[in-house]
Amino acid sequence: MTPLPEVDARGLLCPLPVLRLRKALMALPQGGMLRLIATDSMALVDVPHYCEVAGHAMVALRDLGDGAHEFTVARGPSAPSAAGGLTPEDM
Asked: pTM of the entire structure?
């Protein structure tokens, strides 16, 4: 099985992990999956919220230790290529 693409957002603070996630998801086809690794504690709130409002699916969440969390996210069908979703002002 091919490993999923990974977005390493360790050390980045809100809203950067979600903005990096959004950019990476836009490069994937519908149903495409990736992993986001973040150390910002707000990512535990922001990533699920972003997925819900932008039409993506948060498939899994795993605590990696040392304050890092791994989010597995699938691009949803309602995710537009450039418009919609959250903007930095929404965060």
From this structure: 0.83
